[in-house]
Amino acid sequence: MKDKLDDRTVDFIPQKPKRGRPSTGRAMTAAEKQAAYRARKSAITVTVTFNRDDINTLKRLIGHPDPSLNLDKSVIERLTEAVFQAAK
Asked: How many CB atoms lie within 10 A of CB 79?
């Protein structure tokens, strides 16, 4: 048996290589992984699709947020639902 402190004697009995993927030395900590995840998550662009018929109502609603415009309530509900679905 070879002494653990002996670094000059050649090994005569070949050792099996370690199992698994070799380490790269660039492993991230849990905090680094979480920060990278949050950065990726915040970079995601949200796309919202509206019906072409609803665009004029949306423009009027955004341009003039006055509730006295008498806009169609079902259109406003659909637009609101689409925006909230995109936020999920």
From this structure: 20
Predicted TM-score (pTM) of the model is 0.37
- Take residue 15 and report the two structure tokens written for it: 């050792």
The continuous run of DSSP H or E covering 78 comes out as: helix 73-87
Residue identified by tokens 């004029």 is: 56
Vertex 18, ends 13 and 12: CA angle to 5°? 10
What is the rounded CA–CA span in Å between residue 61 and residue 68?
Answer: 11
> Side chain identity at 59, as an amino acid letter?
K
What confidence tens digit (pLDDT) does each residue in 37-50 have? 999 988 887 777 87
| Structure tokens given for 2 | 């070879």
